[in-house]
Amino acid sequence: MKSRPWDDYYARRAREDGYPARSVYKLEEIHKKFGILKRGSRVLDLGCSPGSWLLFASTIVGHKGLVVGVDVTPLTLRLPPNARFVQQNMLVWDESFLEAVGTNFETVLSDMAPSTTGSKFVDAQRSLELSESALAISARALRPGGAFVCKIFHGPDFKNFSDKARKCFSRVVHFKPKSSKKASKETYLVGLGKIGG
């Protein structure tokens, strides 16, 4: 039987490790390199479905920590005791959303990605919209000194977005995990040390 092209080493490993998606290993790599998750901390996971990042983060922060997952799609995953879920469209949010999820997080994660169209320009623009929203939410929900991780597709406005992030964080790094598919245009922007209140 011919294997599916997306059924690679990381996908098989995710099934063995009990995660719903291979993307968990991207977060694992980012965490190992930058130490973005801390025991007992509060984490906001934007675009959390199907739940791999939420599960991984919940194991790192432990029972004294909290992970709040957010997605437009309902989460079918059984949540660990230190996690909760809020259903929300990340392109349309207001004060009531911030009241629902809370603030003063040590880390904001965003693995949000648009439904791809096949057009690199359109996909990059849609990715940018989600990334801009995640950055705006982090400005409100992230405590000073906190960390921000955001997936973004390369496009003409990639530099402008990075420059905006540099005004919000003392250090900004672009990182492509080894577990990202080689053909993927995704990059992760990692913001460390949120500036100000």
What is the domain total for the residues? 1
Q: Quickly count the helices.
A: 6
What is the second-level CATH architecture?
3-Layer(aba) Sandwich
| Largest pleated sheet | 7 strands, mixed
Shape: globular
Strand content: 25-35%
Q: Roughly how many Å apart are the termini?
A: 56 Å
**Overall number of strands:** 7
Which strand order does the major sheet show? 3-2-1-4-5-7-6
- Report the helical percentage: 25-40%
Q: What is the H/E string?
A: HHEHEEHEHEHEE
Question: Please, could you describe this protein's structure?
Answer:
By secondary structure, the chain is an alpha/beta fold. The chain has a single domain, classed as Vaccinia Virus protein VP39 (Rossmann fold, 3-Layer(aba) Sandwich), CATH 3.40.50. Helix content is 35%, strand content 25%. The protein contains six helices and seven strands; from the N terminus they run H-H-E-H-E-E-H-E-H-E-H-E-E. It has a seven-stranded mixed sheet, with helices on both faces. Helix 5 (120-141) links the parallel strand 4 and strand 5 (142-153). The longest helix is centred in the middle third of the chain and has 22 residues, at 120-141. It is globular. The chain starts with 8 loop residues before the first helix and ends with a strand. 37% of the residues are buried. The mean pLDDT is 89.
Short description:
The protein is of the alpha/beta class and 197 residues long. It is 35% helix and 25% strand. Strand 1, helix 3 and strand 2 form a beta-alpha-beta unit.
Helices and strands in order:
Elements: H1 9-17, H2 24-34, E1 42-46, H3 52-61, E2 66-71, E3 83-87, H4 95-101, E4 105-110, H5 120-141, E5 142-153, H6 158-166, E6 169-175, E7 186-194
Parallel strand pairs: 1-2, 1-4, 2-3, 4-5
Antiparallel strand pairs: 5-7, 6-7
